[in-house]
Amino acid sequence: MTTAELVALTRARLHARERRVVVGGPLIKAAVLVPILDRGEPWLVFAKRTDTVGQHAGQISFPGGRVDPNDAGFLEAALREAHEEVGLPPGAVEPLGALDDQETVATQFIITPWVGLVRGPVAWKPDGVEIERVIEVPFAALLDRANFRIEQWTRNGVTRAVYFYDYAGDTIWGATARILRDYLAILAAPHSP
Question: pLDDT: is 107 or 16 the higher one?
Fold first, then answer.
């Protein structure tokens, strides 16, 4: 799949469906960006969190974070956080649409993911406080079933499926893997007229 095909399919699928929205209550609102790069083929961008950051230390996530009161919405929050965390200029991102909200059980967040195409080259600048490094993963590697596994984890008497994507020695899991799995499922779903 070319980057142009992925962008067109993403835009069409996200605009044609009603996304799952979680109404917050006490949960903390957050937003992440699912950045698509064109490297001759599509790649996705992830951020490896530092071992010293307060939440999700050492994990791989999409760039993003808490929605601030000054943010105009989830997209603005995702773009602001991506700029702060990895140096991605907000003007370099073409928003394609929002995915379903995801809740985190352990840390009590509601995450609204936005998919966006990164226009032009970017000099990644991990902030060093929250983000240790930027990880670029070919989209084809994420589609490869050999890089995907599911484990059943039990917490507080509730068993849940936990998803894992492995690439080049890094493991994507948790809410980020759920966001990724949902995005891939939306793209793979049979088209309905």
Answer: 16
pLDDT given at position 56 = 61
Indicate the length of the chain as a whole number.
193
Number of domains within the chain: 1
In the beta sheet, which residues pair with residue 103?
A: 110
Cα–Cα separations (whole angstroms), residue 20 to 57, 92, 157 = 27, 27, 26
Contact in structure between 48 and 85 (CB atoms under 8 Å): no
Helices 3-15 and 174-188: crossing angle, nearest 10°?
A: 90
Residues 53/81, Cβ–Cβ less than 8 Å: no
| Residue 8: alpha-carbon gap to chain centroid | 18
The reply to whether 158 falls in a domain is no
Mean pLDDT of 82-109: 91
Q: Phi and psi of 156, rounded to 5°?
A: 55, 40
